[in-house]
Amino acid sequence: YNFCRNSPYYEMVAENINREIDVQEKDSQKQEEVQKINDACKSISKDLCSFENSSSEDFCKKVLYMYKFLDKVQSLWKPPSTITNEDLDFLNYWLNVKLKDKSNNSSMCIGKFIEIIKSQGENFISVKINLIEHLHVIDPNKLENMELLCELYDTKQKITDIMFDPDRTKDKEDLCKGYTKTCYDNYKKSMDNCLDEYDDFYAALKMFERGYKYLTDEVPDKSGYCKISEYFQLPEYDPVLETKQRRIMTFKIMSAPLMLPFVIPLLYK
Q1: Which of 97, 135, 228, 254 has the fewest other C-beta atoms within 10 Å?
Q2: What is the pTM of this model?
Q3: Which domain of life is it from (predicted)?
């Protein structure tokens, strides 16, 4: 779940990846590499991999160029760094989300992606961190949790953007009210999902809660519109903690009679 923290960044890159593809395809020095990707992605059948609002070939290119872009960003930011595990976890998540309810056999589709990635050779796959090892079908319940957590971080970023904007317009009041309501509802839904023994998701959700609490308690709202929303604060709602506390109390109540035979003799000493 760690990649979800950077969901706003990844979503921005995903929305603009077509620009990166255009730049690469127009670069005369990259033509051989571009042709290799194009040929590989043409081999994906739409019957095997079906995506919403995108052909199988186009989305294949997006995944490969997204990998290349994220790897390039890391190497430019802190050479000789390469793409991170979180980057690759996002790519796997992104692929699973796009396949959800659209492909009859996600495992076969992902298997085809692995085959295509292998065809790109050493220059494409990082030696240290391998995309192939990160590609797999995500359990549907876990995928839902990831989507909820990513949306929480995306919505938090939208709230933050409005709070830092001193330009007071009526539409921002409506927007922030909507964003805070979305965050409030998704947080409750996420907490309910934690009751299914997703300890790692619960830990990730508590990390989000701490970051959001800092935003609401410490960051000034320059817009003046977010803090007036009734949903600005997250609900004081933690069914996981409540369940654990009930179990402790039940254990204490049930164990009390068992202790009496040992306690009574001590009273008459």
Answers
A1: 254
A2: 0.84
A3: Eukaryota
